[in-house]
Amino acid sequence: MEKRSEDLLLNKEQKSKCLHDLQTAIDQSERPAYDKVLQYSTMHLGLLLILPALSYQLCGFLLWNFKSSDGWPKLWVVFFNFCMYFFKNYQESAPLASLPLISYRVG
Hints:
Layout: H1 5-8, H2 12-28, H3 31-38, H4 47-53, E1 58-63, E2 74-80, E3 83-87, E4 97-100
Antiparallel strand pairs: 1-2, 2-3, 3-4
Keywords: Membrane, Transmembrane, Transmembrane helix
InterPro entries: PH-like_dom_sf
Transmembrane segments: 45-65
């Protein structure tokens, strides 16, 4: 079944959850990695700048294969400001890892 564009939009609860996850990931991320991503930005983004663009941010579950483990665990991923933040689940406050994607397009 083909997804319609309306199905891809986040509802109010999902936007709120994404915003919370995003702010938590930013707050908990390692400072050197975060600064590395920000050097490509023209300014530091605050919540007021993030809110209008929230519908363009991505968050959801992703199957990920770690080199150190067998299988494909399901991780909660938040994509923001050219970086993917990985969590055990959507309730976690600290990311397991972050992956800068400076010259990539995710969609």
